[in-house]
Specification:
Blueprint lengths: L2 H24 L3 E7 L7 H13 L2 E7 L1 H4 L2 H12 L5 E2 L8 E7 L1 H8 L6 H11 L3 E6 L10 H17 L1 E4 L28 E2 L1 H5 L7 E3 L4 E2 L1 H10 L3 E3 L1
Length: 243
């Protein structure tokens, strides 16, 4: 076999290997890293529904538990439920390569630490590591963040933390806090004012973004404004009208 024939044969072999590798990569399992936080077992049903949906969509799950989750009944209940469903999830192993990080029912404790940049637990470290590697980070909020029976200033603080996570690049999915009696607003109301009296007791960043440039914001004296909304008001130089 002359050198030219050998070279052509090698070229074909290399091309075949590269094609097989490409096919293998295209059909490879997509990994999602999951970090479960807190110790509230009442949120487990919502978490399991989300994880089941991800598996049905073809994702391989790698589930880890924060210290508080590991020390409570939450870890045992979650593992047993997934195994009962014949889940393919791996536990307590972080994959080397993964497409996204998912934090279901993110505990208020972990959410606040992430917002404040404190990296002293598994969830916080996983989030900042994923963001540094430009991975998708998705979180659903704990039901406490939607509890209308909690004091409004506390709920405003939770909403502020959620907005901070979004500013980092974390996608917040699922329901968010909606004050009691709040009307659904799809467009600015007549007279270019947001509904406030007896309807809206908390102004969030989303409300401010509904305002047209130069449009005044009318609020009652007892209306709360989240930190992110205040920043947006200042940035856009909007006028507040009280009463």
């Amino acid at each position: 076999m002359d050198s030219q024939t050998l070279s052509q044969l090698l070229d074909r072999v290399i091309a075949d290997v590269l094609a097989q590798h490409a096919r293998a990569q295209s059909g490879a399992q997509k990994n999602v890293r999951v970090v479960i936080t807190g110790d509230d077992i009442s949120a487990l049903s919502q978490t399991l529904n989300c994880l089941t949906a991800l598996e049905r969509a073809g994702y391989q799950l790698w589930v880890s538990f924060s210290h508080s989750a590991s020390q409570s009944a939450l870890r045992t209940a979650c593992v047993e439920a997934l195994q009962k469903q014949r889940s393919r999830a791996g536990f307590d192993l972080a994959p080397t390569h993964y497409e996204a990080l998912y934090l279901p029912a993110l505990s208020v404790n972990s959410m606040s630490k992430i917002a404040l940049g404190i990296r002293d637990n598994l969830a916080c470290d996983a989030v900042f590591q994923a963001l540094q590697q430009r991975k998708a980070v998705i979180a659903t909020l704990h039901p406490d963040c939607q509890d209308n029976t909690l004091p409004l200033p506390l709920l405003a603080r939770y909403e502020g933390y959620a907005h901070t996570l979004e500013s980092y690049g974390v996608a917040i999915s699922g329901p968010r806090f909606s004050p009691v009696g709040e009307a659904v607003v799809n467009a600015p109301a007549p007279e270019s004012r947001l509904p406030v009296t007896g309807k809206k007791r908390l102004i969030t960043l989303r409300d401010i973004r509904l305002l047209a440039p130069g449009e005044p914001l009318c609020i009652e004296g007892n209306t709360l404004i989240t930190p992110a909304a205040k920043d947006e008001i200042k940035r856009r130089n909007l006028t507040l009208v009280h009463g």
